[in-house]
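re: the backbone from monday

yeah here it is again, tokenized this time
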């Protein structure tokens, strides 16, 4: 599949926003129970403003993926059957609830109101991330994506981005809660690394689909292709198959692994064990995670093989899949 750069940007910005706010709000709620030390209101407000700005930027970036932008509002009409529609609704609800939460926090409207709007924003943000993942995980025409591993990988990417950004932010303010974010960041990086490996290992065992699968016909009477669907490039052959990307994939995947997992983990671990120059190291780890996350999402799209490519002779063979 051809990687849409606008959606990759959406994943990174919205992922940081949802991941950062989720962890911040959970910690702030636990502070009411005396489990952890509460964050200063000013820091919580700045982090919330950053989350709101990022999700707005992500929504703006995602709009470039739409063919008819003025018809974007129609997405809500398919809420009952479409994960894409649910993503749009929950993302919008997350932005609105986050704004109301920040207003309640800024006006010091009281803990109950802050918990109400914050809890609604948290629920909408998590549902938005889950809906985004399900768009791809439920696509049975792209076997590489059609797995629960895809969902877990998406959610872990959001938490990796949010926890690393939070660790950097709290380190700038010199707050002890930054250590919690650092621990969470290291944990999510390890889990993300393991699930990304599982995603790639699973591809090794995927069987090549047949034309019967593409046509949703029984396999007892095999269908064979007499002629390719076209001899010239068109939307199907360029958007559903990215030849240049396939050629670059063996080189980009190792780089994505390094920048998305190994480098951030090493920088964060060194920052905490060395005890010096922590803030810039944590900032560098987040930058590495952004670049690595962009490459990893690029690989995710390129690794996907749509069954419609069988009609054009573009689907990889069993040997190439392995």
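seq for it, each position gets an aa:
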């Amino acid at each position: 599949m051809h990687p849409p750069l606008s959606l990759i940007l959406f994943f990174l910005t919205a992922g940081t926003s949802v991941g950062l706010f989720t962890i911040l709000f959970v910690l702030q709620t636990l502070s009411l129970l005396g489990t952890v030390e509460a964050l200063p209101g000013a820091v919580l407000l700045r982090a919330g403003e950053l989350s709101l700005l990022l999700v707005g930027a992500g929504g703006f970036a995602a709009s470039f993926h739409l063919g008819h932008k003025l018809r974007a509002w129609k997405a809500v009409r398919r809420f009952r059957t479409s994960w894409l529609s649910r993503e749009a609704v929950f993302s919008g609800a997350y932005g609105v609830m986050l704004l109301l939460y920040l207003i309640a926090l800024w006006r010091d409207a009281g803990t109950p109101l802050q918990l109400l709007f914050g809890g609604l924003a948290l629920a909408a943000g998590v549902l938005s991330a889950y809906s985004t993942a399900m768009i791809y995980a439920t696509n049975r025409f792209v076997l590489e994506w059609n797995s629960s591993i895809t969902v877990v990988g998406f959610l872990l990417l959001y938490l990796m981005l949010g926890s690393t950004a939070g660790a950097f932010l709290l380190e700038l303010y010199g707050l002890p809660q930054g250590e919690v974010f650092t621990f969470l960041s290291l944990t999510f990086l390890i889990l993300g690394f393991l699930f990304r490996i599982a995603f790639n290992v699973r591809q090794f065992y995927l069987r090549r689909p047949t034309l019967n699968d593409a046509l949703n016909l029984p396999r007892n009477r095999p269908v064979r292709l007499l002629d390719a669907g076209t001899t010239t490039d068109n939307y199907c052959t360029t958007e559903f198959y990215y030849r240049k990307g396939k050629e670059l994939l063996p080189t980009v995947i190792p780089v994505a692994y390094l920048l998305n997992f190994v480098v951030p983990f090493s920088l964060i671990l060194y920052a905490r064990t060395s005890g010096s120059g922590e803030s810039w190291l944590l900032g560098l780890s987040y930058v590495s995670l952004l670049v690595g996350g962009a490459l990893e999402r690029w690989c995710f799209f390129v690794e996907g093989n749509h069954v419609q490519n069988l009609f054009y002779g573009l689907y990889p063979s069993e040997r190439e899949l392995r």
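The chain has eleven helices and no strands. Residues 231 and 246 are 20 Å apart (CA to CA).
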